[in-house]
Fold:
Amino acid sequence: MNNVLVVGDGAVAQRLAERMRHHGHEGTLTTLVTDPETSRRRPSSQPGATAPYALDAFGTPCPAPTLIHPTAAVTALDRGQRRVLAHMNGATTAYSYDTLVLAPQARPLIPGIPGLVSAEGDLTEGVVALGTSFPEVRITSDTVVVLGEGALAVETASTLSAQGVDTTLVCASPHPLQARLGDICGAMLSEKLERAGITVLGGRTAVRREPGHLLLEDGTALRAGTLMLCTGAVPDTRLALDAGLNVHNGIVVDDRLRTSDPQVYAIGDCAEYDGHVMAGPRAAWEQAEALAEILTCRAGSYRPRPSALRLRTEAADVLTIGSLTDLRRPGTRLISLTDQFGRRYARLALHDERVVAAVLLGLPRAIATIGLLHRLGQRLPSDRLGLLLDLPPEPTSQGTEENNDPPVCLCNNVSKQTLFQAWRAGSRTVTELAGRTRATTGCGGCSRSVAELCGVWARETRSEVEKAA
Structure:
């Protein structure tokens, strides 16, 4: 297993490459893309060259030999010859492999709204369709309408508004994410988004796209120099289907993330495990880590962590675990907190003192701690109110003290103390801290918290210097 070939467009492919190197893979590792136009890779050398290092999706050096081919568009898999065919520079090139990993991003779903697609089948001017992540898209218009009601729609609207773009979010439900948050928490999220400068139009339906406008069912014509479609995504299984691999909703994998061909693996948005396609950054990150350990003989199987959604937006801190139905599961203990004025909300369902379902908003420290405890399958501390309101902790019922240094970065389990030590050692910016600790390099939801900590520590240092003078 010396020659590993990774086919994928997104950060998960680069994450796998970085973790493979971290775990000691010494053979050749090559990454190809299925669509060069959507790839976000940033190679540090000429395509096809073996560089002293290559940059991963976050600018972090990966040791050689890592070969990155950002312009080689994969066209077919030849499993019999163990090679991948790709079109590059006007010619077809064959890349051999001992182990192949498929990690293409999901393809966006386009709703059947007149005016979105041209007669040739292309998106009309000013329409951008997103799959499962917000890409590096350059917005040139001064007004943007985001259509959708899921996490990606909220994150996209928040990102654009934070950049000073006049942003409107249109969703069919009364509030964005209402299916996961419920009525009360959904309304609080809408209020937070409005306070962040986003116009939220809930319970509205788009009926037509015209140049510069989006028409709603009530006759409203919204100015929309750019229309961002966040209306769902489907796994990209085209290569796998053509190659004869087992495909259901996604590319079917086993508990080692292997497809029906034992030399071919699949992770990320395209993979289906145990009947479920677990799309999204968190699941992709976990699969990349698990496969890196499997391929370097550090783990024997993949065990998915319990499902959870952490909203990655500056406008609001949100965590959901399970579904609203799970909050009403028989045999669970329910804990609720509603602060309408402060726009803080918590609803937890516990079984054996462990969280089985939750909805939290506006409680960043509780979100970080509860998210980690749920992911590790650990019990909550006995002082539930103190946990939710970030009060001084009390001993648990078992007499042991809880961890007083919960992670700031859940994806990479980086605590505040670890960040502070790195800051003291000279990493004084978010980028420098990311390079030293990998905080913010997962879903990115902790970026604002890390930036705020940098500001606090810088002010404290200046104050100490002034007092000493």
